[in-house]
Design a protein that fits this description.
Number of helices: 7
Helix content: 10-25%
Distance between the termini: 93 Å
Radius of gyration: 27 Å
CATH class of the largest domain: Mainly Beta
CATH architecture of the largest domain: 3 Solenoid
Shape: flat
CATH topology of the largest domain: UDP N-Acetylglucosamine Acyltransferase, domain 1
Strand order of the largest sheet: 8-11-14-17-20-25-28-31-34-37-39
Strand content: 25-35%
């Protein structure tokens, strides 16, 4: 069990204004409703101010607007952005919880000739590092993970158990690739031939920037000829599918089960809710936010929020109905205008 932390030390870490006893011991981070005197909690949304006032937490991280209400309850740490402060606190706390890793290659790992592993890196039990692969300073190849020939895992990056970084693919610095993720599987490419499918070999790779996180069982396919590219700071949730030759701009975040078909281009600082789909060869501008389960069927050229579902049906009927639906508002306005022209005049206007 970890030793408790002084509240003053947490305030020094986060840079907030501490209102309370700096010596108060904190031994866990907890939600407002379950926090006790040994815990620190946070309030990011003012809608939950009542929960904050009723909380038994030893300290609550709040915004300046909640300063007075928090003081009435007890100790508070006032930060400009409580949610960001909470995120940074969890990072620091996780480092305290994480077992210390010893640099080096486990005796049961298989490292092929020609691989280059930085002395400060860690290769855990039964991991594989292929010929010509490079593992950067402080990087971790966890138990049973696979790094293919000529692949690169950048400085400080973490390939978790049973994750796969395929041949020739590259991951930048400080990335996290969760268990079961596959980077660099073949893209879905087949040519029809006499009722059968002829495989199109996928000759590109996957190039991933710095500070990227890839969720469990997410798949990012290698390019057919050019590369699939994931830029800096992108966050992909679990079970996301990225097709071949896709490019995702910096600091975009895609929630669980999002699918992006081949050769689509998604801009920077975009988001997509769970289950959303972007069809192939489309472009999405920067700062576009796509609602959950939305199917993007045409390119989006302007920033903004987009959403919508449509029932599945036979394609020919769907196309006709979709075309009509897009005119629905205009049809409504025309119908209202027609009703006004056909309605009888008001009696008070016609009586002598």
């Amino acid at each position: 069990m970890l030793a408790a932390v002084r509240l003053g030390d947490i305030a020094a870490l986060l840079g907030g204004d501490l209102l309370g006893d700096a010596e108060w011991p904190i031994s866990r981070i907890a939600p407002l409703e379950t926090a006790g005197p040994d815990a620190i909690a946070f309030l990011a949304n003012p809608r939950y101010a009542a929960q904050m006032r009723a909380s038994a937490a030893g300290c609550v991280i709040v915004a300046p607007a909640q300063r007075e209400a928090a003081i009435e309850r007890g100790a508070a740490l006032v930060c400009a952005d409580p949610y960001l402060a909470f995120a940074r606190l969890t990072q620091w706390w996780a480092l305290r919880l994480r077992p210390e890793r010893l640099a080096g290659v486990h005796a049961s790992a298989l490292v092929e000739q020609g691989a280059c592993i930085d002395p400060s890196a860690t290769v855990e039990a039964m991991a594989f590092v292929g010929q010509g692969a490079r593992i950067g300073a402080g990087a971790v190849v966890a138990a049973q993970a696979h790094v293919g020939a000529d692949a690169l895992l950048g400085d400080g990056s973490w390939l978790k158990p049973r994750a796969v970084l395929s041949q020739g693919c590259r991951v930048g610095a400080r990335a996290i690739v969760h268990s079961g993720a596959v980077i660099g599987a073949d893209g879905f490419g087949f040519a029809p031939s006499a009722g059968r499918w002829e495989k199109i070999e996928q000759l590109g790779v996957v190039v991933i920037g710095d500070d990227v996180e890839i969720g469990a069982n997410t798949c990012i396919d290698r390019g057919a000829l050019d590369d699939t590219v994931i830029e800096d700071g992108v966050k992909l949730d679990n079970l996301v599918q990225i097709g071949h030759n896709v490019r995702i701009g910096a600091h975009t975040a895609l929630a669980g089960c999002v699918g992006v078909a081949g050769s689509a281009r998604i801009g920077r600082h975009c988001t997509a809710g769970g289950g959303a789909i972007v069809l192939g060869h489309l472009s999405v501008a920067d700062h576009v936010h796509i609602g959950a389960a939305t199917v993007v069927t045409r390119s989006i050229t302007k920033p903004g929020q987009y959403s919508g579902l449509y029932p599945f049906e036979e394609n020919a009927a769907w196309e006709k109905n979709a075309a009509t639906l897009r005119q629905l508002h205009a049809l409504r306005l025309r119908l209202r205008a027609l009703e006004k022209t056909l309605s009888p005049p008001n009696r008070s206007e016609t009586d002598d």
